[in-house]
Amino acid sequence: MSAAPILSLSDITTVYGGGKRAFGGPRAEVRAVDGVSLELREGEALGLVGESGCGKTTLAKTILGLLTEKSGSIRLGGQVVSGLRPEAARRARPSIHYVHQDPGAALDPWWTVGHALDETLRIHGVRDRRERAARIAEMLMAVGLDTSFLSRYPHELSGGQQRRIGLARILTLRPRIVILDEPTSGLDLSVQATVLGLFNDLRHRLGLTYLFVSHDLSVVRRMCDRVAIMYLGRIVEIGPTAQIFAAPAHHYTRALLAASPTLTPGSLDDMPSLRDDPPSPTAVPSGCAFRTRCAHADEQCRVERPDLAAVTDTAHGHLAACHHAFP
Ligand SMILES: Nc1ncnc2c1ncn2[C@@H]1O[C@H](COP(=O)(O)OP(=O)(O)OP(=O)(O)O)[C@@H](O)[C@H]1O
Ligand SMILES: [Mg+2]
Questions:
Q1: What residue numbers bound the domain in which 121 lies?
Q2: Which of 3, 166, 211, 299 fits a disulfide with 42 by CB distance 3.0 to 4.6 angstroms?
Q3: Chain centroid to CA 18: how far?
Q4: Residues with CB under 6 A from ligand 1
Q5: Are 150 and 180 found together in one domain?
Q6: Structure confidence at residue 1 (pLDDT)
Q7: Are residues 253 and 199 in the same domain?
Q8: pLDDT tens digits, residue range 103-130?
Q9: Residue of the nearest CA to atom 12 in ligand 1?
Q10: pLDDT single digits (tens) 117-166
């Protein structure tokens, strides 16, 4: 039943820093994304979950072509789009668009909504003014707003309206893949529920594929068909949403779930807790990166980095990178 991949990442690594500072010694290299392989299937919503700083936005920007991967390859609809210079990399991916983590920052405070949306389409080569106006009106409607919003400035919008405008803006570009980066952060619960319902509805109506970045597991459970769990730049578990929530295999996933009490059935209260912050990404532990916070870690975890492997013979597409995966 699994659809064909629309996007495939193979062993993608993206780093910050390295090299020398203008003054002083070498800069520490941060491997913010470290050997990620991932497929997005046509029409699905894949959740990407992990603590702050684990590399979610870096991965998103690498997929978009806004950051250049250090190694690995990316295929979009069968075409290799990696190994390109930044400008060319972005141009090679016209069907992928991004809803910014900070909707305020994505909108110029001096521009009206109308000007911002029009400019986006102009930059993307839509020359006909009437065509631009028609697409903008259509997508404002699609996100539950109307053309009266065209004359507003960003500060005259609520958080929920900013999210809708952010989505409308990229929908005018007719994307096939939308990367939503923390699309409900900062919204109160009732607004969040409405915005999520809208995103869900639009995905089905427009046949979109979502990469849904969030550290909120309850949101991901509601929105996504599959979930990938990221820790210090690596995917440590991936699988169908129902399996990830009912039978998490990696101890990190179990700890994340334990930290969301409303999601955790009582029978899973042996789960570990995440007391400390994750280690610095400039000093990733040897072996399994999670071992310094894991109650089950042993010598093997210290020396041998676990690869993603099938959790059980029967659990299709449920993989975990753990030497002592929970049965
Ligand atoms: N421009 C940058 N230069 C250097 N390091 C960076 C840069 N941007 C991010 N990093 C580092 O890369 C790592 C991954 O950051 P990233 O923003 O991808 O995390 P994230 O998972 O999106 O976090 P959050 O949930 O807080 O948005 C972090 O250690 C971060 O400090
Ligand atoms: Mg981020």
A1: 102-174
A2: 3
A3: 25
A4: 16-17, 30, 32, 50, 52-58, 101, 215, 281
A5: no
A6: 43
A7: yes
A8: 777 788 899 999 999 999 999 999 999 9
A9: 32
A10: 999 999 999 999 999 999 999 999 999 999 999 999 999 999 889 989 99
Q: Which of 21, 51, 57 to mutate to test the pocket of ligand 1 (most atoms within 8 A of CB)?
A: 57
Mutate to test the pocket of ligand 1, among 12, 36, 56, 282 (most ligand atoms within 8 A of CB): 56
Report the number of distinct structural domains present in the chain. 2
**Cα 62 to Cα 57: distance, rounded to the nearest angstrom:** 8
Based on the fold, state whether residues 162 and 181 are members of the same structural domain.
Answer: no
| C-alpha 144 to ligand 1 mean position (Å) | 33
Is-contact 139 172, C-beta < 8 A? yes
What would you report as the CA-atom Rg of the chain, rounded to the nearest whole angstrom?
A: 21
d(CA 169, CA 124): 12
CB 217 within 8 A of CB 49: yes
Q: Which of 174, 191, 206 is the last residue of a domain?
A: 174
Nearest-ligand number for the alpha carbon of 59: 1
Q: Would residue 327 count as lying in a domain?
A: no
The domain that holds 187 is classified in CATH as: 3.40.50.300
Identify which of 269, 273, 270 has the alpha carbon closest to the alpha carbon of residue 252.
273
The verdict on residue 20 lying in a domain is yes
- Whether 276 and 210 share a structural domain: yes
Amino acid at 96: I
